[in-house]
Fold this protein.
Amino acid sequence: MIDSHCHLADDTFAADLDAVVERAKEAGLERVLVILEAGNAKEAAQAERIERLWPEVRFAIGVHPHQAHQFAGDPQRAATVVREQFAATRSARAIGEIGLDYHYDFSPRETQHAVFRAQVRLARELQRPVVIHTREADEDTIAILREEGGGEVRGVLHCFTGDAALADAGLALGLFVSLAGIITFPKAEPLRQTAGRVPLDRLLTETDSPFLAPVPYRGKRNEPAYVARVVSTLAEMRRVPPRDLAARTAANFHTLFRP
């Protein structure tokens, strides 16, 4: 099993990181992809600690749309910061998470667009996959990926909660779709219906921990070990053994991120 998206470098894991990693391994996880905020020295330091504990871990580095406002005066500098940190991080494999967020609008939309475009262009140049965050901004997210990706940028729609139109548009661009703990929620039947249209060879699993703990852990801090609940839910939906679903999504991870 693989958790394709988690935030182990977040402060919430600092006190018991060793135990969290051990529980993940005991749950059968081969590795995780840890998301790092570009330019965040504290997260970078914890990333080094994570790598010592778990050499198989891999990283994605990017400027999230919530932080895009920090680069309002020079959006290209966001790509420069990512480029420099990526080059200095031995286990970095992807650019992300990047994208657009119109739900919170913590950054002006035009700034989000410019920073997103700069990072997609960087991914295209470096021939690295992207980890996409999109919230209430699906049409613009897909448009920018089409315009800047040029059909050459691989990637994943992370923590997918979109509709069939977003799923189809992403798949048409060659993207993977990653499901998180929301898929286990009782009221998530529309999402489960949409997830059912994603081919098995384009499916990934994640926790997005420490957020969005799956049933039966809702209300608690999420952690990579809980990706097993996502796997078992998807396996039940697909009517395949959990072991087979885990193996398939792990193979997909390797195809995309080439770890």
User: Anything to note?
Assistant: The longest strand covers residues 92-101.
